[in-house]
Amino acid sequence: MDLMSRKIGRDELRPGDHIYTWRSGYSYSHHGIYVGDGKVIHLTRGPGLIIFSNSSRSSDDRVVCCDMEDFLCDGQLYRFEYGVSRFVFLTKRPGTCSLASSDPPEQVLHRASYLLEYGFGNYNLLSRNCEDFAIYCKTGVIKADVSFSGQIKSLVAAVTAVTIIPYRFLPASLIGVALVVCSLYCLCRLCSDVRTGIRDFDVVAVEKLARLSDTQNIREKMNMMENSTTRWFLRHCLHYMVTRTFVLEMDISEYNSSMD
């Protein structure tokens, strides 16, 4: 595992480092920003589904500062690498490195401290998770409804590589199919990284990000209100139609009785 991710000692840590630890038998990693004095700032998930937390309880999706022991939960300490080559990026395990360069530690610590006070918005596994939080603190790059998490993007790349291949035009050889799938997977991973030269995203100031998060929360609440209003309208329309149908049947029955 150490060949695919960089394990380090605590004496190697520097404030502003993007660190992570593997959990549940190396099935996924949890990310944060080391701020010095044995403290880590990271995004935690509130109660709810694993994909996204309950939007009505967004206050439970918090950016917190905790001790290193609490962050690691008896796991090992690893450092996320920035500015790696494409070869290293493709040979390392997803979620351990990026092609993008890191900003100076001062900027990283400023973003992390600001988000500790104002929050990072609602947790979403597919678009705003702990790895996205740490990557934003290091690069200032973020995109609404787009995750830069290497773990998520690798899964998307694998599914894309397997599903979009026109198998009928490929050679019957398993080696040929495997090479095509592997090539598409690598291409998808490269194109989905924070900065590849193919798809650049703008840097968003942390002060503006807080306002964007507030706007997103307001939009989600408005959508919830619209959905509830729509359900209320449809329910009352259905009730009205059923009632009118019943009254009409009663009128017809009474009319037929009077004719008899």
Automatic annotation (TrEMBL):
This is LRAT domain-containing protein. It comes from Rhamnella rubrinervis. Residues 20-146 form the LRAT domain. SUPFAM superfamilies: Cysteine proteinases. The lineage of its organism: Eukaryota, Viridiplantae, Streptophyta, Embryophyta, Tracheophyta. Transmembrane segments: none annotated. It comes from the Eukaryota. InterPro entries: LRAT_dom, Papain-like_cys_pep_sf. Gene3D superfamilies: endopeptidase domain like (from Nostoc punctiforme) (3.90.1720.10).
